[in-house]
Write a structure and sequence with these properties.
It is built from twelve helices and six strands. It is mainly alpha-helical and 330 residues long.
């Protein structure tokens, strides 16, 4: 028969103490994890050792509550037990509620899901405003985005195709701009091959220049081929384009073109003072504007004026144009 082992009173007491201590620790840990805290929708975990990273948690607006050694121990323990994951670096989403606890917060940190944001470049918008939009959405510096664009873009404006783009928060200005430019270049090359059968960056630049003016001038897509026809007719006759839309370049994208602007602006974009096309696109151009630039309407028109309804009245000669100004302009 097997011998019975006897537990001495001291051993029993020691075990009971250990169990009580474990129970107290467990209760304390549960209480700690249930403590309500103020949470944020998005937090940022910087690169580096986990301990250092957690001590520098921040949000785009304000610092988060500081983590401590116990938080770090809990995260590492749960990761070792394969119950949670080790927090990744970058921006992550934290669920917000009035009952968010320390445990909820640490668990959310362990999930480390990347936060994505959208940025939309609408047809007709200039790089000046789009870069400032990107800087605001992705918490980047305007100067860094401008430098990254200028380093690789083929044109001073218009090198980014209008679209809605999605990136993770925390992306660098360099990586963001590299993606935008590579995507746009592939898009333009594919579009040119579809419409023309080939792609020539220099010829495509001229297409974008004309399309960007059309985009600024046309009241709707139906007018775009007519606007294009006017542009080509005036170029053929060596007439200055005299189009306000060309003066809506850069930071003047949303500015009303006044007689003073026309008189004082000496940039190549002032088609009242300079014949021919500007050297660069005056902004982004959508598909319909690009098609109009490539396939303009065959028309005798040389002039157009905006009507009270917002559309344009087209004229073949200056006398008709003057009559249209008096009759149709607001």
């Amino acid at each position: 028969m097997a011998k019975r082992t006897h537990t001495s009173p001291i051993e029993k007491k020691g075990r009971n103490i250990l169990l009580e201590m474990a129970f107290i620790i467990a209760l304390s840990l549960l209480f700690y994890l249930s403590i309500p805290i103020k949470s944020y929708a998005i937090v940022y975990i910087p690169r580096g050792a986990l301990k250092t990273a957690l001590n520098h948690l921040s949000t785009p607006e304000t610092p988060t509550p500081k983590t401590n050694a116990l938080d770090l121990w809990i995260l590492r323990l749960m990761a070792a037990l394969h119950l949670w994951h080790t927090p990744k670096r970058g921006y992550i989403a934290i669920p917000i509620s009035r009952t968010t606890t320390k445990g909820d917060f640490l668990h959310a940190l362990s999930l480390s899901k990347a936060v994505y944001q959208n940025a939309t470049l609408i047809p007709g918008e200039t790089l000046y405003f789009f870069i400032r939009h990107l800087a605001k959405v992705f918490h980047l510096k305007v100067e860094d985005l401008e430098q990254a664009y200028n380093a690789k873009a083929l044109w001073a404006d218009g090198a980014i195709a209008p679209n809605t783009y999605k990136f993770t928060l925390g992306i660098s200005a360099q990586n963001l701009m590299d993606h935008l430019l590579k995507h746009s270049q592939k898009h333009y090359q594919k579009l040119s091959e579809q419409l023309l059968g080939s792609y020539d960056p220099k010829k495509w630049q001229q297409t974008l220049i004309i399309a960007s003016i059309i985009q600024k001038e046309a009241a709707n897509a139906a007018e775009m081929p007519l606007i294009a026809g006017v542009i080509y007719n005036r170029l053929k006759k060596h007439m200055p384009l005299q189009m306000d839309g060309a003066l809506n370049y850069g930071k003047y994208s949303h500015a009303k073109v006044t007689h003073e602007r026309i008189a004082t602006d000496n940039s190549p974009y002032n088609t009242y003072k300079h014949k021919g096309l500007p050297k660069e696109p005056v902004g982004s151009a959508g598909l319909e504007a690009i098609k109009a630039a490539l396939f303009p309407a065959k028309t005798p028109f040389l002039y157009f004026v905006k009507t009270k309804e917002g559309a344009h009245k087209f004229s073949a000669n200056y006398k008709e144009h003057v009559r249209a100004i008096h009759k149709f302009s607001p």
